[in-house]
Amino acid sequence: MLDAAGEVWIVHYDITTEDTATVLHLSERLVDSDRAAFETVLTRALSGKPREVVVDFAGLQYMDSAGLGLLLTLRERAQAQGTSVRLRNPEGAVRDMLQLSRFDTLFRIEAGAKAASR
Predict the structure, then answer these.
(1) Comparing C-alpha atoms, which of 57, 67, 68, 116 is closest to residue 92?
(2) In this structure, what CATH number is given to the domain that contains residue 90?
(3) What is the distance between the alpha carbons of residues 68 and 101, in angstroms, rounded to a whole number?
(4) Is the dihedral of CA 50, 42, 104, 57 positive or negative?
(5) Is residue 23 one of the residues assigned to a domain?
(6) Which NCBIfam families does the entry link to (predicted)?
(7) Domain range for 24
(8) Using CB atoms within 10 A of its CB, is residue 45 exposed (0-12), middle (13-18) or buried (19+)?
(9) Other CB atoms within 10 Å distance of the CB of residue 7
């Protein structure tokens, strides 16, 4: 994918397991053009009906309003099967966007130090 400056961005997703949680690691950016890939990863993350899905933003550099919508989709699908969702390690502009959008009222959000102690 190319950004406005013509630079190539490759969106990366990785899924791991920690205790009873499925961890979705995001890197680079989460934007509207990632919708199809995110839906596929979301299906994989929820397929085992984990008790919790943790979205790790440690490698995420940018997210737009469509990315927020994708997180809401995750929340809706997870709740439908009794899975909770936690967001961890949002930093910089991503953290600011989550705060401004009041996502802390919808998700448990943990900063790096708190998340690392879990």
Answers:
(1) 57
(2) 3.30.750.24
(3) 9
(4) positive
(5) yes
(6) ant_ant_sig
(7) 12-116
(8) buried
(9) 8
- Answer whether residue 81 is part of any domain: yes
| C-alpha–C-alpha distance, residues 22 and 58, integer Å | 16
Rounded Cα distance between 58 and 94, Å, is 10
For residue 18, the cross-strand partners are 21
Q: Residue 86 is encoded by which pair of tokens?
A: 């936690």
With tokens 């390690």, the residue in question is: 89
Token look-up 């989460």 returns: 30
Query: pLDDT tens digits, the chain, 118 residues: what are they?
Result: 434 444 444 457 889 999 889 999 998 889 888 888 888 889 999 999 999 999 999 989 999 999 999 999 999 999 999 999 999 999 999 999 999 999 999 999 998 644 444 4
What predicted TM-score, i.e. pTM, was given to this entire model? 0.83
List helix spans (H) across 3-100.
35-46, 65-80, 92-100
> Is residue 29 in some structural domain?
yes
110 within 8 A of 104, measured Cβ to Cβ: no
